[in-house]
Amino acid sequence: MSSVRTRTFCCCIPVRAGAILLSLLGVLGGALITAAGIITLSRHGENGSRTSLIIQVVVYGLLALLSLFGLIGAIGKKLAMVRLYFGILMFHLFFSIGCGIYAIYYTFKNSPSYVNDCIKTAANPADIKACKDGASLMKGLMVGIFIVAWLLEIWACIIVHGYSSQLSEEIRNRTVVKDTEAW
To answer: 68-97: string of b/e by CB count within 10 Å (b at 16+)?
Structure first.
């Protein structure tokens, strides 16, 4: 029986450990973001961003729930569950990109009305400048955070795919039958 080379990321960390860690982060992070979204919805239920908050709650709630498949699959070395987790991560990545683009568009579209509302309550020129600079800062932070989150999720997909490939190779090597008696 030949051995299978352990795949790594970050030069030395095995992809199995990465898949376990990523699924744990998916469960915890998804649950925290979902809880924060629910709290925000309950406090500001009639706000204009209600649709994007509902989408956020659903997307990250599903991520938390379905990351359990990745955790169980990675710990138990279950190829089908790891592949399902990889598929879920890919779907989540594309859905997250779509929702993120919607949220960014919505923020940029409504930014002038937020700035005007802020300026109406401003008492001096420094407050007006703070309103405009604050809106610009929030737009920049929002775009930056989404890009970093998407890059991390792409990296997670690469790690889970690497573990899926390694598991598949291990299973293939287990089923190889060598005929050494014919010699």
So the answer is: ebbbebbeeeebebbbbbbebbeebbeebe
Share of the chain above pLDDT 70, in %: 90
What confidence score (pLDDT) does residue 161 get? 92
pLDDT at 13 (0 to 100): 82
Encode burial over 150-164: b for 16+ CB neighbours within 10 A, e otherwise. eeebeebbebbbbbb
Residue 164 tokens read as 């899926």
Instruction: Kindly report the pTM of this predicted structure.
Output: 0.75
| Residues paired with 13 in a beta bridge | 9
| DSSP string for the chain | ----PPPEETTTEEHHHHHHHHHHHHHHHHHHHHHHHHHHHHHSTTSTTHHHHHHHHHHHHHHHHHHHHHHHHHHHT-HHHHHHHHHHHHHHHHHHHHHHHHHHHHHHHHHHHHHHHHHHT--SHHHHHHHHHHHHHHHHHHHHHHHHHHHHHHHHHHHHHHHHHHHHHHHHHHT-----TT-
Confidence band, pLDDT 50/70/90 cuts, at residue 2: low
Q: What is the mean pLDDT of residues 61-83?
A: 89
> What is residue 133's predicted lDDT score, i.e. its pLDDT?
83
